[in-house]
Protein: Mesoderm specific transcript, isoform CRA_b
Amino acid sequence: MRPWCAEIACADSVGVVGSPEIVVLLHGFPTSSYDWYKIWEGLTLRFHRVIALDFLGFGFSDKPRPHQYSIFEQASIVESLLRHLGLQNRRINLLSHDYGDIVAQELLYRYKQNRSGRLTIKSLCLSNGGIFPETHRPLLLQKLLKDGGVLSPILTRLMNFFVFSRGLTPVFGPYTRPTESELWDMWAGIRNNDGNLVIDSLLQYINQRKKFRRRWVGALASVTIPIHFIYGPLDPINPYPEFLELYRKTLPRSTVSILDDHISHYPQLEDPMGFLNAYMGFINSF
Structure:
């Protein structure tokens, strides 16, 4: 498809015959829809359609530069994708992680406001996303790049597999770290179309999240659809217990699944069975 003259990579699997259920997967930063590969087959056993995209600037989608990447644009791309697939009038289950959680918040806001072209959201499951600016702890490199200073173009050009793997591995648990092969697969998605050169632009989402906190957290707090959160508690980016305490205080109606103590920021990759069981428990509860 060509929203805004951009090519968006998308995977769309047909699963259970006769089921009307659709799930759309929204990945995190800085990776891609690859993040869902360990739970993909399990999802096809429950849903009729399992759909994932690489956001603009990520994975195997286009990575225009210079470009002002925004959460609003990514949400519009999701809406356009569903229209392209003829699913604009279907009820959609959203499953998101990290950066994808914020895109889901904007989609939820549009749903709540009954915006033209918005998705009809049946349920939302978030996971290890920094939905609260005040409890989010970005990595040092993210802090340097998000402000777009004079160092940004230098740092993005110096980024290589070694820098990437050294930065990403610590956000996994000590017993669940990715293999070198998995890291190379992730890096291939980032490096495609010179994606390392747009990372600083993509990181503007951190500033956007702070600016639009009321809009996005308010959307979560005010809707009545089922909402769930799957949490790897060893996450250094959304640390326990501060994050979980604020989440439960802000969203008392939401349910939460806390995975094993050693699971960190990428629960769907670190504990795919635990993640899948938690999600199926949520989906089957309503």
Notes: The first strand starts at residue 10 and ends at 14. The beta strands are 10-14, 22-26, 49-53, 91-96, 120-127, 227-231, 255-258. The chain is about 40% helix and 15% strand.
